[in-house]
Design brief:
The protein is of the alpha/beta class and 274 residues long. The protein is built from 10 helices and 9 strands. The structure holds D-galactaro-1,5-lactone.
Length: 274
């Protein structure tokens, strides 16, 4: 797709934690970045980048921003457990606008989904990419919608997507759950590079975690895009495995603390539907 040149990328959510990291690291690699966020960009604009303030709900602005881009890294939107109403504009309408922009400009999309699309599975369960989704709240539900949107746009409109179910992108794992979900900064950046540079991606699902022996997750499409994580949480086991919450539900389930927001059962979620 790129013929050895560096990608032109629209990066939404550029002023957030992962957006700022990608802006810095991808510009160091020579990417041409179009940064957007509804908040001002808090750092110096990196070399080769531009910044535009926009809201994801503004369809025309999103479509304009994506002109001539090879890839859209869609890090904008709500990234914590919130009410349905809070997620509606940015995560539903906004993600739809991203896909319309990708369709218009023939760009591919990296859609950062989340562990929270499967947050109600028990931690003892090992999941593969085709598992039934079990979102743990309105945030996870909006990510499940984004995954389905990605699929519709691939199957109906040939818009390629990598759906990355990101675990926990942090400098290092700091509690027991993160030993399973940790995605190091270096592995995260290399994953984004593989997503943009792979020749064909179609519709690919990746579990966004480093090479952790305690991972909750198994088979996915990483071989198709040539991604191999290099880091592992294993070296942190002794230091952090005793660090956990006091909440029985949170400690049992893959979604951790997000699950407990507005949780109204007395017991764990049922494994079947009756
Ligand atoms: C997510 O999806 C969140 O965006 C992030 O802030 C973390 O909390 C992560 O999941 C997690 O659950 O570790």
């Amino acid at each position: 797709m790129l013929n050895n040149r560096q990608p032109i990328a629209l990066l939404t959510g550029a002023s957030g934690h992962l957006g700022r990291l990608l802006a810095r690291r991808l510009s160091e690699c020579g990417w041409h970045l179009r940064l957007t966020d509804m908040r001002p960009f808090p750092d110096t604009i990196p070399h080769g980048a531009t910044f535009v303030e926009l809201a994801l709900e503004d369809k025309d602005a999103v479509i304009n921003a994506a002109k001539d881009c090879d890839v859209i890294l869609h890090y904008g939107g709500i990234s914590t457990e919130q009410s349905f109403e809070e997620t509606l504009g940015p995560n539903y309408r906004g993600t739809y606008h991203i896909y319309e922009a990708a369709r218009r400009h023939r760009a591919r999309v990296v859609f950062p989904s989340s562990v929270h699309v499967v947050g109600l599975y028990e931690r003892s369960e090992k999941l593969d990419q085709d598992c039934v989704l079990r979102p743990d709240g309105y945030y996870g539900l909006s990510k499940a919608y984004g995954e389905m949107l990605a699929r519709v746009y691939w199957e109906k409109h040939a818009v390629e997507s990598v759906v990355v179910r990101i675990g926990s992108t942090l400098p290092e794992p700091t509690d027991r759950r993160f030993l399973s979900t940790w995605l190091s900064y270096d592995d995260f950046v290399s994953l984004m590079q593989c997503c943009a540079k792979a020749e064909r991606i179609g519709f690919t699902v990746i579990w966004g975690a480093s090479n952790n022996s305690r991972s909750f997750w198994g088979a996915d499409g990483r071989a198709r895009i040539g991604w191999t994580p290099k880091d592992s949480s294993d070296g942190f086991i002794e230091r952090v495995e005793s660090i956990m919450t006091e909440d029985r539900i949170a400690e049992h389930l893959q979604g951790g603390r997000f699950v407990t927001v507005d949780y109204s059962r007395d017991d764990l979620p049922p494994r079947d539907l009756f």
